[in-house]
Amino acid sequence: xxxxxxxxxxxxxDLYATELTGICIDEIGEDYAKCSLELxxxxxxxxxxxxxxxxxxxxxxxxxxxxxxxxEYKTVSLTTSASFMSASRxxxxxxxxxxIKDGRRNCFFTVTVTDDLDKVIAVVDFTGAHxx
Length: 132
Prior knowledge:
By secondary structure, this protein is α+β, with helices and mostly antiparallel strands. The mean pLDDT is 96. The chain starts with a helix and ends with a strand. A six-stranded antiparallel sheet has the order 1-2-4-5-6-3. 24% of the residues lie in helices and 44% in strands. Strand 5 and strand 6 form a beta hairpin.
């Protein structure tokens, strides 16, 4: 496994998540990643809440890092299921991706999104496919 700097360099190419949305990679480990997003007005919907798409993009990048960094193969998302639990009143969101099961062709990850007030904001389950 490489360093967090190498992970940040690799995923800096994901311009939507890193530049446009502003997501940062905070931690990496074996089949694990934690990313964060400092919330600004650009992440809010018409009602003032955080856009579901911003929350999902944070979870998606955490999954991408956890399932791809340091691997000899690529993993892409096949299906996802997002459960939005509550609105955030915090200023930062965190997404922690953890491997549940890995197989020869597929993998299963759960990403838990929390805020800096320790509130669970969403839980996103990913089924990934290992590709060549």
